[in-house]
Amino acid sequence: MATFLHRLGRLAFRRRHVVTLLWVALLALAGVGASSAPVATSSSFSIPGTEAQKAFDLLEERFPDAGADGATARVVFKAPDGRTMTDPGSRATVVKAVDALRAGSGQVASVTDPYTAKAVSRDGSTAYVQVSYKVSGMELTDATREALEKAADDARDSGLTVEIGGDALQTVPKTGAGEIVGVVIAGIVLVITFGSLVAAGLPLLTALIGVGIGVSTITALASVLDLGSTTSTLAMMIGLAVGIDYALFIVSRYRAELAEGRDHEEAAGRAVGTAGSAVVFAGLTVVIALAGLAVVNIPMLTKMGLAAAGTVLIAVLIALTFIPALLGYAGKRVLGRKARKAGHEPAEEGAAEERPNMGTRWARFVLRRPLVVLLVGVLGLGAIALPAASLEMGLPDDGAQPTSTTQRRAYDLLSDGFGPGSNGPLMVVVDGDKAAADRTATGIKGLEGVAAVTPAMPNKAGDTAIITVVPKDRPSSAGTEELVRSIRDTTGDDVLVTGATAMNIDFSQKMNDALLPYLALVVGLAFLLLMVVFRSVLVPLKAALGFLLSVVAALGAVVAVFQWGWLGSLFGVEQTGPIMSMMPIFMVGVVFGLAMDYEVFLVTRMREAYVHGERPGQAVVTGFRHGARVVTAAAVIMIAVFAGFIGSGEQMVKMIGFGLAIAVFFDAFVVRMAIVPAVLALLGRAAWWLPRLLDRALPNVDVEGEGLRSERADAPEGGERELVRA
Length: 726
Known about the structure:
726 residues; alpha+beta; Alpha-Beta Plaits; Multidrug efflux transporter AcrB transmembrane fold; five-stranded antiparallel beta sheet; 23 helices; 11 strands; 62% helix; elongated
């Protein structure tokens, strides 16, 4: 592989005009496609095989005009002190708002009158109007949302407090200042690392181009493939991080090759042949982790994973082709000013042994005290992981929104007026006649945790009915989850429980059930891949165990902040609650792939030194001398990019950004920079042991670039023809 990539790097360097035009053309094509495509909507959410999904499917068949899977809005009215919602003036205001909502848009499926639907609180202080739409929240037109907000504004003019809950006001998350700050910090780190604006600008430029192509392609295909609006956020988050990192690896190795006296073209070829090999395998681990989300069997999650994996592939291709092409334009400006004047690269990026850098000194420290470093690292992460034992999972509702939003204020008004469970009523679907539905409703009333049960509402054919059950507890509570189980256990197969709350419960259960199979698939495939890369059994095993330690510690930190509220104000957490149910499996997938970047890049340099004849301990020092500075910069950049999403107003995006940032911190600085060298020091030569049968069976991909040692410094004429033959 190193030989092939070496030729590819030289070809891209020589044919830089063609390569640059191709990538610019791809960016322009993707941009045109995105600008002409329909506006992205929310992906149709389905959970195949669950009871909640079966009920939704039945509702679509038996209640075609009910808008069962469409958006909902709850317009909550609260009377001022001294008045009630049953006063003539308040009643007239609400009736006027109901009429305005019904006439507001053709997307409205139904609007309930609170006075006929018994949606007025016992003390008369609060009432709410339920609005159901025919389409999802992201598919609502601006005119529909404006009609909803205008109805609320008109009612406020009469002196009532009016707030809007539900998902009808859901919009596409926008890029905020936090994400921009993350990119700025990445640029500062690159300038400090390289001492050259040109060298620092290349990773940023290529990463932005890669993300632009990936996100624009997702936007262009969103409507056709039902990708959803959140897919591009995930792709941008991961694409920026890996795009900068992969380019950083190539540029850093290119500068090191120049320091050894090679000409620019050969340096580009060798950078792609060596560091590029690490990029390929690091990218493959990320792709495996993201594509592996398909085993969860939730279409939305599968599409998000595949779309993000496509963005990672673009980042890999850009690093292998576009970076060497741009290096051809940069010339000596890729070096710092002092290095250009001196005619060589600074010692910390070269091979000078007499001036040990921080990486060298740290590696030697670990080699002197490997057991102490190992115990401190493992015990420290183990202590941080302890809160993960109290992990409670669910999906965030309006109660997790900031108190400044109308959704959160509506949630609180409903809780105060009707009880916490009114924010997450259960929809019980009875596949039978009215008499069967009435018997079911009577049985549900006797269950513990039920606040109210509405009369059965049959369809036109009379063969199906809907019963609304209001729990006593809030939607994301353990009590509501237990109530759902009780209804399902005490009723027959012709009774199905659904609604947003039941769907969230089923989603969480499905994620729990898929976690172990997914973990086995991802870690297993990556273990085999790393065994091919490092030609070792213990090194991949150590990599997998170290990852598990870092991801559990990260989950512990997430629980402490978002569930327990520790340091919550520092990260903008206004409401604690269950951890998003997709968080553990999402972190396993994304963090595993990203963590392997550092493992592959750092340990590949150690393997390269060991293969070239160095002793195991010295190979660890060599790997840190060449790679520690780059891995440190890459980790800081990735943490900055992810941390930028903590400022998002979306609770899900905020939690993902924090979880990924803290996981990368633990994995890069504790596991890869401390535990890994400590374990390798204790294992010695045994770390690189591989049974003879496996040695003969595994393909030799030559990640270390051993095949390049026999090649001449300058590639032969006709390099393009050799590349084609390869």
